UniProtKB/TrEMBL annotation:
PANTHER family: METHANOL DEHYDROGENASE REGULATOR, MOXR FAMILY PROTEIN
One Pfam family this sequence matches: AAA_lid_2
Cited Gene3D superfamilies: Magnesium chelatase subunit I, C-Terminal domain, P-loop containing nucleotide triphosphate hydrolases
Highest taxon above the source species: Bacteria
GO molecular function: ATP binding; ATP hydrolysis activity
Similarity comment: family membership: Belongs to the MoxR family.
Origin species: Pseudoalteromonas luteoviolacea
CDD domains reported in the protein's UniProt record: AAA (cd00009)
Record protein name field: ATPase AAA
Taxonomic path: Bacteria, Pseudomonadati, Pseudomonadota, Gammaproteobacteria, Alteromonadales
Domain ChlI/MoxR AAA lid: 240-284
Length: 303
């Protein structure tokens, strides 16, 4: 199994240069059956990452550009009257794909953002009283611009909590950026040329394998201690919920699996903690590393 995940990350690293840890976290999110939020400035490679994942995994892919005038039906689809049969025919929207890129999600109104809630939580959408199941696997990758940019709306807490992880790609280092300049638009072509390395059945098997990774009592206690600190310290107005505790356990298992182990370590918890907890604690991306390191100093690591 680790050979499959290693190959996926190697292929994606040809597109997203110098960001192997972020690629590992994105794959960790998918294997945990979660959804991914990427917060960054425009032009950092968010769309390239989502499209590259779809190509490498052989999954169907749709992109929706979120704008202030976008309606929920533009995402989920709608029923249109058929004059020949005198019935309403359902026309599915872009949400009926395996990977949905919700680009600049925080430029849409909260009403439109909420169109994703049922889909992300239950893998289905209800339209005109009828429930429609979504393709599996179903993976939402949403990008958002920093809130200081004009035309943005903060995501409601209920929407944020549906995202399993939040990551930030950040600026590349000088050598990587030099390579990007020299390659120019060639990278768009390379995205289309990525070969599929996995079938749906192999992906489902990897997702099932996550639950077989051993989560030892000391690691579980470490997760509980970290969560309890956010609730008892008084530092956070929105401490971590039981849903966040479950997400920490799942993502630690997935991270261990990608690392080639069938057991978890406290290091796995520390590797994923900021991405799972940061948005739930309302920590800005720019402050996440400092806040998370402060929490780690206060909560002892099990021996």
């Amino acid at each position: 199994m680790s050979q499959l995940t290693t190959k996926i990350i190697e292929d994606l690293s040809q597109l997203i240069l110098g960001k192997n840890e972020q690629l590992k976290l994105a794959l960790c999110c998918l294997l945990s059956k979660g959804h991914l939020l990427i917060e960054d400035l425009p032009g950092m490679g968010k769309t390239t990452l989502s499209h590259g994942l779809a190509n490498v995994l052989g999954l169907s892919y749709q992109r929706v550009q979120f704008t202030s005038d976008l309606l929920p039906a533009d995402i989920t689809g709608s029923s249109i009257f058929n004059s020949q049969t005198h019935t309403f025919d359902f026309h599915p929207g872009p949400i009926f794909s395996q990977i949905l890129l919700a680009d600049e999600i925080n430029r849409a109104s909260p009403k439109t953002q909420s169109a994703l809630l049922e889909a992300m939580e239950e893998g289905q959408v209800t339209i005109d009283g009828q429930t429609h199941g979504l393709a599996q696997p179903f993976f939402v990758i949403a990008t958002q611009n920093p809130l200081h940019q004009s035309g943005t709306h903060p995501l409601p807490e209920s929407q944020l909590d549906r995202f399993f992880m939040r990551i930030s790609l950040g600026y590349p280092d000088s050598e990587v950026e030099k390579s990007l300049i020299l390659q120019g638009n060639k990278r768009t072509f390379e995205t289309r040329q990525l070969e599929c390395n996995m079938t749906d059945e192999q992906l489902f098997a990897l997702q099932d394998e996550v639950m077989k990774v051993k989560l030892s009592d000391p690691v579980v206690q470490y997760i509980l201690d970290l969560v309890r600190y956010t609730r008892d310290s008084g530092e956070f107005s929105d401490p971590l919920s039981p849903r966040a505790s479950i997400a920490l356990g799942l993502s630690a298992r997935a991270y261990a699996l990608i690392s080639g182990r069938d057991y978890t370590l406290p290091d796995d918890v520390q590797a994923i903690f900021g991405c799972v907890a940061g948005h739930r604690l309302n920590i800005p991306c720019s402050e996440q590393l400092d806040v998370v390191n402060s929490i780690f100093k206060q909560v002892p690591v099990p021996v």
